[in-house]
Amino acid sequence: MSTDHDHATAGHPVVDAVFTEVARIAPEVRESLLGRRTYEEGENPSGEQQLEADVYADELFEEALLALDGVGSYASEEREGLVEADDTSDDDYHCALDPLDGSSNVKPNNVMGTIVAVYDEPLPAGGDALVAAGFVLYGPLTTMVATCDGQVSEYTVVDGERRVSDTDLSLPDDPVVYGFGGRVPEWTDDFAGYVGLVEDELKLRYGGAMIGDVSQVLTYGGIFGYPMLRHHQQGKLRLLFEGLPVAAIIEAAGGRSSDGERSLLEKTPAELHERTPVFVGNEEYVERLELALE
Ligand SMILES: O=P(O)(O)OC[C@H]1O[C@](O)(COP(=O)(O)O)[C@@H](O)[C@@H]1O
Ligand SMILES: [Mg+2]
Ligand SMILES: [Mg+2]
């Protein structure tokens, strides 16, 4: 029997409205890729090239989410500062998005995502203020995963609507896959040693879009990571837009997250675009990683 709480976001009206809007826009984002595969002149605040598709998706989400009652501000990987809603109150939620995750995959037509994080404190906020998180995966199908109140649901997105396919997603007990970002000569010796052990046990899956790789881990079990690099101690991924939401999903699905020392959910960024090493996956593999990096 269907109830109000038969999927992760259903008991929280503002959060549910955010995810309903994200699902509504997802097909539009997908269609917008046609003709928007070229690079913009500028860079995003992290110094990365922006595709026309990055900018377009960002504008679609900004407009739709700020129009919702109860959403007080919007921040994204593609813009320097926050955008505030016209009417705000202390009870508002605050949305942080990676509008297109893995956008360098647009050109070769590979998998991409949209990541959404909903915080109950003004941004930048930390894991203690994260009330819900989710992602859209633009693969052969458009699917969505969302977590709220410790429950993780999966949906297929059809004609802009979420259809529940699983209300209790959890990591499989027998891990199968791993994927780590960054060029190998840039890895630290400790991390390279750990990878040597992992590759004896698991199969490599790395697609260049975190959401695609995280979905592999959610489905088959294992570990995904983007480590600290010799010349970039904080790695590549951003805590507010990428690390925290993915950590919330994987931890709610029974796994663990880490920056190499502690759960990502214990962290609070000092500024919107702060980066962090990111590791998410089955407990056993994240624990062994932390021991290897000690
Ligand atoms: O090209 P690399 O260094 O392997 O980096 C890939 C990583 O960078 C990202 O593409 C960064 O995300 P954006 O495309 O949103 O900037 C991740 O999705 C992915 O895991
Ligand atoms: Mg990203
Ligand atoms: Mg992005």
TrEMBL record:
Its cofactor is Mg(2+). It is an enzyme of class 3 (hydrolase). Mg(2+) 1 binds at E77, D98, L100. Its main location: cytoplasm. Residues 42-157 form the Fructose-1-6-bisphosphatase class I N-terminal domain. Binds 2 magnesium ions per subunit. Residues 172-292 form the Fructose-1-6-bisphosphatase class 1 C-terminal domain. It is found in: Cytoplasm. GO terms for biological process: gluconeogenesis. Mg(2+) 2 binds at D98, D101, E242. Its EC number is 3.1.3.11. GO terms for molecular function: fructose 1,6-bisphosphate 1-phosphatase activity; magnesium ion binding. Pfam families: FBPase, FBPase_C. It catalyses: beta-D-fructose 1,6-bisphosphate + H2O = beta-D-fructose 6-phosphate + phosphate. One of its GO terms (cellular component) is cytoplasm. Keywords: Carbohydrate metabolism, Cytoplasm, Hydrolase, Magnesium, Metal-binding. Substrate binds at D101, G102, S103, S104, Y206, K236. Belongs to the FBPase class 1 family. Homotetramer. This is Fructose-1,6-bisphosphatase class 1. It comes from Halomarina salina. The lineage of its organism: Archaea, Methanobacteriati, Methanobacteriota, Stenosarchaea group, Halobacteria. The gene is fbp.
